[in-house]
Amino acid sequence: MDISPSLLAVALSWRTLLDIILITTGMFFLLLTLARLGTWKIMAGIFLALVVFIGANLLHLQGIEWIYNNVSHVALIGLIVIFQPELRKVLERAVWAPPKLTPAGSEQLSRLVADCLVAMAKDCCGALIVYPGREPIGDKITGGFELNAEPSYPLILSLFDDSSPGHDGALIVEGDRLARFGVRLPMSTTTRLADSYGTRHHAAMGMAEQSDALVLVVSEERGQMAAFYESEMLPLEGQEAVCQLINAHLERIGQVRRKRKSRVFNKVHFLLVMISLFTATALSLSVLDTSRNIVERSVSAPVDYTQSTVDGSVLVGDRGTEVILHLSGPLTDMDELRQRPPHVNIDLSTLEEGRHSVVITSENLNLPKNITLLDVSPAQLDLTLAPMERKNLPITPQLIGKLPGGLKLKKVSVSPETVLVTMPKVKKGQGAFKILTTPIYLDSISADSSIFCGVAARPAIQPVSKSWPNVEVRVEVESVTPPKPEESRKPGAETALQHNSKPK
């Protein structure tokens, strides 16, 4: 893509820069969440799809663009459904309530927990302790027992003793209290951990994948300590390492006030920022480049007529119902016309009675701002307006076909018999206008029937009440008596005939 000075000037506008910053921020948090959850393959597939789309857009590959334009909406809904947990975590990270500050003595609690972990590791006693982060974990844990106790060395050891009812579960530490114990954590759904690790490790990884909590684990088989945070496993050696990790976590989530040390920016974070920035910049430049492409298209547009007042005039005779518009404008704006096709609006209230040639201009169209009207076919519409009058017209039933054999019409009545309409004035010698019902097929009638019909009338005839009434047609029939056969011979005639027919 050749970046012209004009495109570069537009790209450097504050709106474009703000757009790039917001897209980069959103993509970074989404990619970071996907990376934490171990869905790198899905993330790579999405990034590859974005690269293909941007490349096709820049190279104007119409086949790829057509596929994306027709599939992107469905794919977007599918991605929202598939990545609902990840998107939820991104939103939770964007908006969170500041945590309560832990009272003084947090270092003593950290050291107490570290002493307990070291002691349990020596005795090969399994343990699982969770320090929640900024994100709530209530919807991710199940079971357990309410504790809300002041921490102590004997209490923590007793909770993970084999005789304790909740020794296989996790202990939740909130602030300076032991909140719950025997809690079940979500299992990991990724392949980050080998199958050789036990249930505690997979549960700790599952919690670290789905939240920003810090999870401390003591292996019952190996007697080793480990920490899980942001989908990563960190082996721990000694009491001091455990204390530093807990204090750093509390400082990170804002539960303790301490002068923070400068943090070294993670290489993975830097890579994700670069990917997000590159994608956002390429996407913005692609959209800008596409918006600069001026194309011409022919679009069909229906003609809408705005009727005049009841006492004014009415449109009669032939009228145009559709025109072809030759338009020019940016490609993106032209594509929007597929969703919102233009209409030609003709206001009849500004015209007097008689014949008119209405020229179609851009004022008759609801075109977007950047679309230019080049030509119209036909360029004008020939219309005829006639004076209107109010009149009661009779409603005539439209009977089609014949009654079944042996039946004939006795009576046909219509309710209402007339309707008040506005219509063009009838000139001398001109046939009268009729109001007909919708067709009534007689071959389907075998007895007296009441049929509800609609009304069929010319477009120039409109009801004063703004809507046509429902018409009830009452059809009464009667049976036809077949005629008696005529007596072709008088009594005794047959005898006389036989007598005369005898041979002499």
From TrEMBL:
Pfam families: DAC
Domain of life: Bacteria
Matches recorded under InterPro entries: DisA (IPR050338), DNA_integrity_DisA_N_sf (IPR036888), DNA_integrity_scan_DisA_N (IPR003390)
Gene Ontology MF terms in the entry: adenylate cyclase activity; ATP binding; diadenylate cyclase activity
Keyword entries, A-Z: ATP-binding, Membrane, Nucleotide-binding, Nucleotidyltransferase, Transferase, Transmembrane, Transmembrane helix
Keyword Metal-binding carried by entry: no
UniProt name for this protein: DAC domain-containing protein
Organism field: Desulfobulbus oralis
